[in-house]
């Protein structure tokens, strides 16, 4: 039974606002200016998540539940939106949602309230203390703001017994931690929040989120300075991958970064930035020169200081688990790498993973390529297709007609391209890739066509279409123009997207790889969970057995699943694999199945042995890769497996057996 | 029910463990010792320590000391945390393993060895949880 006035269809007249809000996955793309539109003016000014489109969507869900009584801050949140439409463009590119309708619904809701319907939340001693550290505007206990952090650091369903504070400096972070400790309050830093939102619907919600206490939102630590003379950049904890890359590119330099909306410092601390560029650029401590850290006592340290506890040694094994960062990385000095004039992207299509794996291992060991990865057809489709439906049809075409199951995706210099072409026999070159991106709606529409049926009867349809006489016909037939791809968007956005796709970078695969704006599409309207880890590259059967295990468990739990990517690390000595499961995050049953899948795949990986799983490396990102990756842990004995289950039981409670 | 970190808590805790926990079944005939260091104890922001020792699954020592450190014991594990973290554990809001892995309490000693006896430690905490429901605000 609802306790407070609820946002309803009847009340707002906008029947899809709540539905839109529920589809939000906290991908964070509304907080980076990846389309050149500028950023949400409200979010940029006020900072707190509630003032950004993703936060408003979260708020609307709470108000719809009737579990949240408005405060006067809600008026400010609603009115701060200028309905400028930037969020609709950003969100549409990534996830096809229209957050502006949600913002309008919030305005309508606020206008429908009378003054008696607002609760008053007085400033308490904790907020006073936090405000004394960061200033009046940047600390709050207002439930309207706190609710916007649910599902991206606060687990759903808990009382909103929290504070949110937004420091601007490492010194303020230090003072907040000391204040929290003195007042016996737990705390957790928040950066992009997407990883936490991925865990939120699952059994891991309580393990990774903050149960009560102080959310330290690091968005205001925006220091960003490129040092071209030393090919380094100094990056504050509020800087995203996209923002760093954009600045680095102005100097013809490139950073090794995670997804566009992810925060660089948090990625360093959490998972060590393992990317498709990892074989050339490194991973874990390779990524940085120095760090500024704040420990759990609030002491500020530099990574180079001798007093720091040994940052290089790490116990390996299943019991060395961390669920929270040992330090908050408030600033990092990261390495940058040269951008070459002759860089190109080239794809090698495969109909089976074994051959794709052979070739990526060969290139990895030879040191060919800057970015190197095997992608499944699903990743390819999700990345390049502008809508979910087109991606689904594109997948169908790849799988059932072209027999395109995997691509080896290489970004390389000219001399390396020659090696790739020599080994591969035939490739998908940069021009064809551009055609596939702009022509993806047309290719997807050929599903069930006579053309595809005839093509599928060929012995090697991939060769026919990418290297044979059909190549020219395909290029012409795709109608690959910005105007044509723009037609798939809502009518009012078509002109805008025509201009966007006319920009060279939006069909330039090298740029798209470096800026990583496309992975957000994996999260369109549903959640993607990607467990994985590293294995030695020398035992191909072991790798294939591991991939099959992920696939079998996905089938068992009736989840949509596919290989994400396979990339070599450390000069081809290691292979890193991400395997993805997709599910509706609003369906509790699906969340149960994804939880079981996570636990089962982790346990099976540990029992299989010689595998370095997510739990082995989570929050060990600041270590040297040599200390994280060597030696790989042996498989669990039955006795150790029992202990592992005891630990899980202690962490997760009476969770249903998998 | 008695107040957390009081002498009564120690006495009731001892009695409850002796009466209700089976040395073999519940405590795995474990021999270990834990020194708990609780910082920022309200209302005067002090430090309180407790020391708990098991011999072959039998509780052989359980003492409490406010202010001064317990230096005469050589515990296998030292667990340091603020009052809020300990309170959350003894109120059942979070588990020992969760608090440890989320850095809310710090462990001196082998984390890996500690996790291996987590089932028994959880049993002990659960027993002590049953005798206390009064905490400082």
Commentary on this structure:
- The complex is a heterodimer of chains A (658) and B (137).
- Chain A starts with 8 loop residues before the first helix and ends in a 6-residue tail after the last helix.
- Chain A folds into 3 domains: 9-117, no CATH class; 125-217, Uridine Diphospho-n-acetylenolpyruvylglucosamine Reductase, domain 2 (2-Layer Sandwich); 344-617, Vanillyl-alcohol Oxidase, Chain A, domain 3, CATH 3.40.462.
- The radius of gyration of chain A is 24 Å and the shape is globular.
- In chain A, a hairpin with a 4-residue loop joins strand 5 and strand 6 (232-236).
- In chain A, strands 11, 12, 13, 14, 15, 16, 17 and 18 form an 8-stranded antiparallel beta sheet that branches. In chain A, strands 5, 6, 7, 8, 9 and 10 form a 6-stranded antiparallel beta sheet that branches.
- In chain A, 43% of the residues lie in helices and 15% in strands.
- The longest helix of chain A is centred in the last third of the chain and has 21 residues, at 588-608.
- Chain A contains 32 helices and 18 strands.
- Chain A is of the alpha+beta class and 658 residues long.
- Chain B is α/β, with parallel strands linked by helices and 137 residues long.
- Chain B has one domain (2-128): Nonspecific Lipid-transfer Protein, Chain A (2-Layer Sandwich).
- Chain B is built from 5 helices and 7 strands; from the N terminus they run E-H-E-E-E-E-H-H-E-H-H-E.
- Chain B has a 5-stranded mixed beta sheet. A two-stranded parallel sheet of chain B has the order 1-7.
- In chain B, strand 2 and strand 3 form a beta hairpin.
- The radius of gyration of chain B is 14 Å and the shape is globular.
- Classes of the chains: A alpha+beta (658), B alpha/beta (137).
- At the A-B interface, helix 32 of A face helix 2, helix 3, helix 4 and helix 5 of B.
